Amino acid sequence: MKNPIPRTDVVLAGLALVDVIGRPVDIQHPPRKGGLQVLESMTLTTGGNVANCGIDLAKLGFRVGAISRVGDDPLGDFVLRHLAKYRIQTSGVTIDRKAQTSATFVAVEKGGERTFFHTRGCLTHFRVKDIMKHLPLIARTKIFALGYLGLLPECEPHLPRLFAAVKLRTGVATLLDTGGNPRRDPLLLKRMLPYVDYFIPSREEAAVLTGATSPAAMVASFRAWGARGVVGIKLGADGCYITDGDREATVPAVKIRRVVDATGAGDAFVAGFLAATLRGFAPIDAARRANAIAASCVTAVGASTAIKHFDDYR
Asked: Which of 36, 108, 195, 214 lies deepest, with the highest CB count within 10 Å?
């Protein structure tokens, strides 16, 4: 009998939401009360790690599964249609009939810097059990990736149990991504990191998590707390610092002429790193590809607009 659960390359769990991206928005000089500020463009798209990384990976040429929660509303319908457009498996997405789809207004300034206005909506109901019930889906993938530590407060106390279950019951590789405002909790990380194969937070997030100031010191803290796999630090315009325990390197960013919109750059890096890893690249070489894919992301409005097939990044 044919197995109804499809095989995928990556299953992403966590945030799937709607982004309304307006640009350019002069945050420093808003219109007077009751006034109007004319924008060059306003784009409706999906957001969150599930949508951003998922669509990036699909465009790069990989098979993707999604586990998240959306509302029973037009915004939720938009998310599901958008994921389906890229053939992302959505059997793991729960329809929440008690709260609206999570949504963000992204105000993009002229230089590409972003300011966010967000409602969590139905993601306040997202729980680890929403993921655990889809372990059969995870068992038929190659990498399980969850995001974001810092934006799933209801799930955080139970994440060590989740990562242990995924690792011990399915054997697939795991990635933990960070976002928003993660809190410093060494005990939580000590319980979770031994089951995480890839952990590459941003410099700002790693500084909060560890209290350290240099990438090497940040990574040393994560190692002391049990991280055994690939650990790195996303450094924005400075590239990234990456180590697999044997080799380490600061990989420079790929330079571009003009930043249009930095939305989704971190997610594009994660998607690029996972894609290169699935193609057999060693961590430092995977980070080089990830930097190139993240650089292409910021050249157009939207988190996934500029992403091309993996073979185009040479």
From this structure: 108
